[in-house]
Amino acid sequence: MKNPKNWKSADNVFKKFDINEDGVLDEQEFILLCKELFEEEIIDNKWRVEDIFKKLHTNEESGLKGKDWDRCFKKWIQPIVNPVNVLVVVDVQNDFIHGSLALHNCKSKHDGYEVIEPINNILSKVDWNKVVYTLDYHPENHISFYENLHLRELHPTSQIKQEKAVLYDKVTFLKPHVKQTLWPKHCVMGTPGSELHQDLHILPKSIQICKGQNPDVEAYSVFTRDNEEACSEMESVLSKIQATDLYVCGLALDVCVKETCLDALKLGYKVILIEDCCRGIDNDEIIKAKNAIVKNGGLIIKSEEVYTFVNDWKRSLILAHHAANKLSEKISSQSSSNLFSIIMYRSCTTSPNP
Q: Ranges for the EF-hand domain (predicted)?
Protein backbone atom coordinates (compact mmCIF):
# COMPACT_ATOMS: atom_id res chain seq x y z
CA MET A 1 0.00 0.00 0.00
CA LYS A 2 1.08 3.57 -0.65
CA ASN A 3 2.13 5.82 2.20
CA PRO A 4 -0.93 7.92 3.19
CA LYS A 5 1.09 11.15 3.38
CA ASN A 6 -0.39 12.29 0.06
CA TRP A 7 -3.93 12.18 1.50
CA LYS A 8 -3.63 14.99 4.07
CA SER A 9 -5.35 17.79 2.13
CA ALA A 10 -9.06 17.60 1.34
CA ASP A 11 -8.67 20.11 -1.50
CA ASN A 12 -5.76 18.25 -3.10
CA VAL A 13 -7.53 14.89 -2.94
CA PHE A 14 -10.71 16.41 -4.36
CA LYS A 15 -8.85 18.01 -7.28
CA LYS A 16 -7.00 14.77 -7.98
CA PHE A 17 -10.21 12.76 -8.46
CA ASP A 18 -12.50 15.45 -9.89
CA ILE A 19 -11.48 14.33 -13.36
CA ASN A 20 -13.97 16.47 -15.32
CA GLU A 21 -13.34 19.47 -13.05
CA ASP A 22 -17.03 20.16 -12.47
CA GLY A 23 -16.70 20.66 -8.72
CA VAL A 24 -18.46 17.40 -7.86
CA LEU A 25 -17.14 13.88 -7.26
CA ASP A 26 -19.57 11.64 -9.10
CA GLU A 27 -19.84 7.89 -8.62
CA GLN A 28 -17.27 6.99 -11.28
CA GLU A 29 -14.76 9.43 -9.82
CA PHE A 30 -15.44 8.05 -6.34
CA ILE A 31 -14.75 4.55 -7.68
CA LEU A 32 -11.34 5.77 -8.88
CA LEU A 33 -10.67 7.16 -5.41
CA CYS A 34 -11.56 3.80 -3.86
CA LYS A 35 -9.35 1.94 -6.34
CA GLU A 36 -6.38 3.85 -5.01
CA LEU A 37 -7.39 3.27 -1.40
CA PHE A 38 -8.30 -0.41 -1.60
CA GLU A 39 -6.62 -1.58 -4.83
CA GLU A 40 -7.67 -5.03 -6.04
CA GLU A 41 -10.18 -5.53 -3.22
CA ILE A 42 -12.80 -3.50 -5.08
CA ILE A 43 -12.79 -5.86 -8.10
CA ASP A 44 -15.23 -8.27 -6.49
CA ASN A 45 -16.78 -5.70 -4.18
CA LYS A 46 -17.95 -2.92 -6.44
CA TRP A 47 -21.34 -3.09 -4.75
CA ARG A 48 -19.71 -1.99 -1.51
CA VAL A 49 -18.21 1.07 -3.20
CA GLU A 50 -21.57 1.96 -4.73
CA ASP A 51 -23.29 1.63 -1.36
CA ILE A 52 -20.60 3.69 0.38
CA PHE A 53 -21.06 6.43 -2.20
CA LYS A 54 -24.80 6.52 -1.52
CA LYS A 55 -24.21 6.64 2.23
CA LEU A 56 -21.70 9.49 2.06
CA HIS A 57 -23.67 12.09 0.12
CA THR A 58 -27.04 13.54 0.98
CA ASN A 59 -27.88 15.06 -2.42
CA GLU A 60 -29.31 12.24 -4.54
CA GLU A 61 -29.04 14.28 -7.74
CA SER A 62 -25.30 14.86 -7.57
CA GLY A 63 -22.21 13.52 -5.90
CA LEU A 64 -19.81 14.59 -3.19
CA LYS A 65 -19.25 18.31 -2.82
CA GLY A 66 -19.25 21.02 -0.20
CA LYS A 67 -20.24 19.83 3.28
CA ASP A 68 -20.71 16.25 2.09
CA TRP A 69 -17.14 16.12 0.80
CA ASP A 70 -15.72 17.78 3.92
CA ARG A 71 -17.50 15.23 6.10
CA CYS A 72 -16.44 12.37 3.83
CA PHE A 73 -12.81 13.44 3.97
CA LYS A 74 -12.62 14.14 7.72
CA LYS A 75 -14.87 11.37 9.03
CA TRP A 76 -14.34 8.60 6.47
CA ILE A 77 -11.13 9.03 4.44
CA GLN A 78 -8.84 10.34 7.18
CA PRO A 79 -9.57 7.50 9.65
CA ILE A 80 -8.87 5.06 6.80
CA VAL A 81 -5.52 6.50 5.71
CA ASN A 82 -4.40 7.59 9.19
CA PRO A 83 -5.90 5.05 11.59
CA VAL A 84 -5.28 5.01 15.32
CA ASN A 85 -4.67 1.31 15.95
CA VAL A 86 -5.39 -0.28 19.31
CA LEU A 87 -4.66 -3.89 20.29
CA VAL A 88 -7.22 -5.22 22.77
CA VAL A 89 -5.99 -8.32 24.61
CA VAL A 90 -9.00 -9.90 26.30
CA ASP A 91 -8.76 -11.83 29.58
CA VAL A 92 -5.54 -13.82 29.12
CA GLN A 93 -5.74 -14.75 32.79
CA ASN A 94 -4.62 -17.72 34.82
CA ASP A 95 -8.10 -19.03 35.62
CA PHE A 96 -8.91 -19.38 31.90
CA ILE A 97 -5.64 -21.16 31.16
CA HIS A 98 -4.98 -23.52 34.05
CA GLY A 99 -7.44 -22.48 36.76
CA SER A 100 -11.07 -22.91 37.74
CA LEU A 101 -12.45 -22.07 34.27
CA ALA A 102 -9.62 -23.44 32.15
CA LEU A 103 -10.71 -23.85 28.53
CA HIS A 104 -9.27 -27.36 28.32
CA ASN A 105 -11.99 -28.44 30.75
CA CYS A 106 -14.75 -26.97 28.55
CA LYS A 107 -16.46 -28.42 25.47
CA SER A 108 -13.85 -27.14 23.04
CA LYS A 109 -10.92 -28.68 24.96
CA HIS A 110 -8.89 -25.69 23.81
CA ASP A 111 -5.59 -24.80 25.44
CA GLY A 112 -5.77 -21.12 26.37
CA TYR A 113 -2.00 -20.97 26.75
CA GLU A 114 -1.65 -21.29 22.97
CA VAL A 115 -2.68 -17.66 22.43
CA ILE A 116 0.27 -16.25 24.33
CA GLU A 117 3.03 -16.83 21.77
CA PRO A 118 1.20 -15.26 18.78
CA ILE A 119 -0.03 -12.37 20.95
CA ASN A 120 3.51 -11.71 22.21
CA ASN A 121 4.69 -11.79 18.61
CA ILE A 122 2.35 -9.02 17.46
CA LEU A 123 3.03 -7.06 20.65
CA SER A 124 6.72 -6.96 19.77
CA LYS A 125 6.60 -6.53 15.99
CA VAL A 126 3.66 -4.18 15.38
CA ASP A 127 3.57 -0.42 16.00
CA TRP A 128 0.49 0.01 18.17
CA ASN A 129 -0.86 3.40 19.15
CA LYS A 130 -2.14 1.81 22.34
CA VAL A 131 -2.45 -1.64 23.91
CA VAL A 132 -5.33 -2.42 26.28
CA TYR A 133 -5.42 -5.57 28.43
CA THR A 134 -8.84 -6.46 29.83
CA LEU A 135 -9.36 -8.57 32.94
CA ASP A 136 -12.33 -10.31 34.47
CA TYR A 137 -12.20 -9.09 38.07
CA HIS A 138 -15.10 -10.29 40.19
CA PRO A 139 -16.13 -9.88 43.83
CA GLU A 140 -16.72 -13.06 45.84
CA ASN A 141 -20.50 -12.65 45.61
CA HIS A 142 -20.68 -12.19 41.83
CA ILE A 143 -23.94 -13.16 40.15
CA SER A 144 -22.23 -15.37 37.55
CA PHE A 145 -20.79 -17.87 40.05
CA TYR A 146 -22.58 -21.18 40.40
CA GLU A 147 -21.37 -21.24 44.00
CA ASN A 148 -23.47 -18.11 44.67
CA LEU A 149 -26.74 -19.44 43.27
CA HIS A 150 -28.26 -19.64 46.75
CA LEU A 151 -27.65 -15.91 47.37
CA ARG A 152 -30.35 -14.73 44.96
CA GLU A 153 -33.96 -15.72 44.31
CA LEU A 154 -34.85 -17.04 40.86
CA HIS A 155 -37.64 -15.52 38.84
CA PRO A 156 -40.81 -17.64 38.57
CA THR A 157 -40.25 -17.82 34.79
CA SER A 158 -36.81 -19.41 35.12
CA GLN A 159 -36.89 -22.63 33.09
CA ILE A 160 -34.35 -24.23 35.41
CA LYS A 161 -35.18 -24.25 39.10
CA GLN A 162 -32.65 -23.59 41.82
CA GLU A 163 -32.50 -27.11 43.17
CA LYS A 164 -31.86 -28.60 39.72
CA ALA A 165 -29.38 -26.11 38.35
CA VAL A 166 -25.88 -27.32 37.52
CA LEU A 167 -22.74 -25.68 36.17
CA TYR A 168 -23.16 -23.87 32.83
CA ASP A 169 -26.97 -23.85 33.07
CA LYS A 170 -28.80 -20.62 32.34
CA VAL A 171 -31.16 -19.40 35.02
CA THR A 172 -33.29 -16.27 35.36
CA PHE A 173 -32.86 -14.26 38.52
CA LEU A 174 -35.60 -12.19 40.15
CA LYS A 175 -33.45 -9.26 41.30
CA PRO A 176 -31.80 -8.21 39.16
CA HIS A 177 -34.13 -9.65 36.50
CA VAL A 178 -31.52 -11.15 34.20
CA LYS A 179 -30.79 -14.42 32.47
CA GLN A 180 -27.44 -15.71 33.61
CA THR A 181 -25.05 -18.54 32.75
CA LEU A 182 -23.71 -20.17 35.89
CA TRP A 183 -19.91 -20.32 35.70
CA PRO A 184 -17.44 -21.79 38.16
CA LYS A 185 -16.05 -19.19 40.54
CA HIS A 186 -13.26 -17.49 38.59
CA CYS A 187 -11.05 -14.40 38.45
CA VAL A 188 -11.91 -13.32 41.98
CA MET A 189 -10.41 -9.98 42.93
CA GLY A 190 -6.90 -10.22 44.32
CA THR A 191 -6.46 -13.95 43.69
CA PRO A 192 -3.73 -15.53 41.53
CA GLY A 193 -6.42 -16.77 39.15
CA SER A 194 -7.37 -13.19 38.27
CA GLU A 195 -3.84 -12.24 37.19
CA LEU A 196 -2.67 -12.00 33.61
CA HIS A 197 -0.54 -15.02 32.77
CA GLN A 198 3.10 -14.48 33.63
CA ASP A 199 4.27 -15.36 30.11
CA LEU A 200 2.13 -12.68 28.47
CA HIS A 201 4.19 -9.59 27.62
CA ILE A 202 2.88 -6.42 29.25
CA LEU A 203 4.02 -3.40 27.26
CA PRO A 204 5.07 -0.16 28.95
CA LYS A 205 2.43 2.58 28.74
CA SER A 206 -0.27 -0.02 28.10
CA ILE A 207 -3.56 0.09 30.00
CA GLN A 208 -5.30 -2.58 32.04
CA ILE A 209 -9.08 -2.38 32.44
CA CYS A 210 -10.96 -4.55 34.92
CA LYS A 211 -14.55 -5.58 34.25
CA GLY A 212 -17.24 -7.46 36.15
CA GLN A 213 -16.68 -5.70 39.46
CA ASN A 214 -20.37 -5.02 40.05
CA PRO A 215 -21.69 -8.12 41.86
CA ASP A 216 -25.08 -7.93 40.09
CA VAL A 217 -23.87 -7.26 36.54
CA GLU A 218 -22.30 -9.73 34.12
CA ALA A 219 -19.68 -7.93 32.03
CA TYR A 220 -18.50 -10.06 29.16
CA SER A 221 -17.70 -6.97 27.09
CA VAL A 222 -15.13 -4.42 28.23
CA PHE A 223 -17.64 -1.79 27.03
CA THR A 224 -20.26 -2.86 29.59
CA ARG A 225 -21.59 0.14 31.48
CA ASP A 226 -22.81 0.13 35.06
CA ASN A 227 -25.49 2.57 33.92
CA GLU A 228 -26.53 4.03 30.57
CA GLU A 229 -25.73 7.58 31.58
CA ALA A 230 -22.00 7.07 32.00
CA CYS A 231 -19.44 5.91 29.44
CA SER A 232 -17.41 2.83 30.22
CA GLU A 233 -13.73 3.21 31.11
CA MET A 234 -12.87 1.65 27.75
CA GLU A 235 -14.91 4.25 25.85
CA SER A 236 -13.13 7.04 27.72
CA VAL A 237 -9.70 5.61 26.97
CA LEU A 238 -10.43 5.17 23.27
CA SER A 239 -12.04 8.60 22.97
CA LYS A 240 -9.01 10.27 24.53
CA ILE A 241 -6.65 8.86 21.90
CA GLN A 242 -9.27 9.13 19.09
CA ALA A 243 -8.99 5.41 18.34
CA THR A 244 -10.38 4.20 15.01
CA ASP A 245 -9.35 0.55 14.58
CA LEU A 246 -9.51 -2.15 17.27
CA TYR A 247 -7.60 -5.42 16.84
CA VAL A 248 -9.12 -7.88 19.29
CA CYS A 249 -7.74 -11.19 20.59
CA GLY A 250 -7.70 -13.36 23.70
CA LEU A 251 -10.09 -15.52 25.75
CA ALA A 252 -12.74 -16.69 25.26
CA LEU A 253 -13.66 -16.09 21.63
CA ASP A 254 -17.30 -17.10 21.99
CA VAL A 255 -17.92 -15.07 25.15
CA CYS A 256 -15.88 -12.00 26.17
CA VAL A 257 -14.02 -11.58 22.88
CA LYS A 258 -17.25 -11.79 20.89
CA GLU A 259 -19.17 -9.37 23.09
CA THR A 260 -16.30 -6.88 23.09
CA CYS A 261 -16.16 -7.00 19.28
CA LEU A 262 -19.91 -6.59 18.83
CA ASP A 263 -20.10 -3.66 21.24
CA ALA A 264 -17.15 -1.98 19.52
CA LEU A 265 -18.87 -2.37 16.14
CA LYS A 266 -22.08 -0.85 17.51
CA LEU A 267 -20.08 2.13 18.74
CA GLY A 268 -18.66 2.68 15.26
CA TYR A 269 -15.12 1.34 15.58
CA LYS A 270 -13.56 -0.70 12.84
CA VAL A 271 -13.00 -4.13 14.40
CA ILE A 272 -10.49 -6.79 13.38
CA LEU A 273 -10.57 -10.17 15.11
CA ILE A 274 -7.18 -11.90 15.17
CA GLU A 275 -8.41 -15.46 14.88
CA ASP A 276 -5.31 -17.50 15.77
CA CYS A 277 -4.77 -15.33 18.87
CA CYS A 278 -8.08 -16.54 20.32
CA ARG A 279 -9.40 -19.71 21.89
CA GLY A 280 -12.93 -20.48 23.02
CA ILE A 281 -15.27 -22.59 25.13
CA ASP A 282 -17.61 -24.29 22.67
CA ASN A 283 -16.74 -24.97 19.02
CA ASP A 284 -20.32 -24.47 17.81
CA GLU A 285 -20.55 -21.15 19.66
CA ILE A 286 -17.17 -20.10 18.27
CA ILE A 287 -18.52 -20.48 14.73
CA LYS A 288 -21.61 -18.45 15.66
CA ALA A 289 -19.43 -15.77 17.24
CA LYS A 290 -17.27 -15.35 14.15
CA ASN A 291 -20.33 -15.24 11.91
CA ALA A 292 -21.88 -12.55 14.11
CA ILE A 293 -18.74 -10.41 14.01
CA VAL A 294 -18.56 -10.62 10.20
CA LYS A 295 -22.30 -10.00 9.81
CA ASN A 296 -22.01 -6.83 11.86
CA GLY A 297 -19.14 -5.41 9.80
CA GLY A 298 -16.03 -6.85 11.41
CA LEU A 299 -13.04 -8.44 9.72
CA ILE A 300 -11.30 -11.70 10.68
CA ILE A 301 -7.59 -12.13 9.93
CA LYS A 302 -4.58 -14.18 11.04
CA SER A 303 -1.81 -12.75 13.19
CA GLU A 304 0.63 -12.95 10.27
CA GLU A 305 -1.53 -10.37 8.45
CA VAL A 306 -1.57 -7.83 11.26
CA TYR A 307 1.81 -6.31 10.42
CA THR A 308 0.66 -5.61 6.86
CA PHE A 309 -2.45 -3.82 8.08
CA VAL A 310 -0.85 -1.73 10.81
CA ASN A 311 2.73 -1.12 9.66
CA ASP A 312 2.24 -1.26 5.88
CA TRP A 313 -1.06 0.68 5.71
CA LYS A 314 -3.15 -2.07 4.19
CA ARG A 315 -6.74 -0.88 4.08
CA SER A 316 -9.91 -2.96 4.18
CA LEU A 317 -12.96 -2.13 2.08
CA ILE A 318 -15.09 -4.25 4.40
CA LEU A 319 -14.13 -2.10 7.38
CA ALA A 320 -14.53 1.08 5.34
CA HIS A 321 -18.05 -0.03 4.40
CA HIS A 322 -18.90 -0.51 8.07
CA ALA A 323 -17.51 2.95 8.84
CA ALA A 324 -19.66 4.50 6.10
CA ASN A 325 -22.76 2.77 7.45
CA LYS A 326 -22.11 4.09 10.95
CA LEU A 327 -21.42 7.59 9.64
CA SER A 328 -24.68 7.47 7.68
CA GLU A 329 -26.56 6.38 10.82
CA LYS A 330 -25.03 9.29 12.73
CA ILE A 331 -26.01 11.78 10.01
CA SER A 332 -29.59 10.43 9.97
CA SER A 333 -29.79 10.57 13.76
CA GLN A 334 -28.56 14.17 13.83
CA SER A 335 -31.00 15.14 11.08
CA SER A 336 -33.89 13.57 12.97
CA SER A 337 -32.81 15.30 16.17
CA ASN A 338 -32.56 18.67 14.43
CA LEU A 339 -35.98 18.19 12.81
CA PHE A 340 -37.50 17.29 16.18
CA SER A 341 -35.95 20.42 17.73
CA ILE A 342 -37.40 22.60 14.96
CA ILE A 343 -40.86 21.06 15.36
CA MET A 344 -40.75 21.52 19.14
CA TYR A 345 -39.56 25.11 18.78
CA ARG A 346 -42.38 25.93 16.38
CA SER A 347 -44.99 24.25 18.56
CA CYS A 348 -43.81 26.26 21.54
CA THR A 349 -43.75 29.60 19.71
CA THR A 350 -46.96 29.25 17.71
CA SER A 351 -50.12 30.51 19.36
CA PRO A 352 -52.84 27.86 19.66
CA ASN A 353 -56.00 28.24 17.61
CA PRO A 354 -58.83 29.90 19.55
A: 5-40
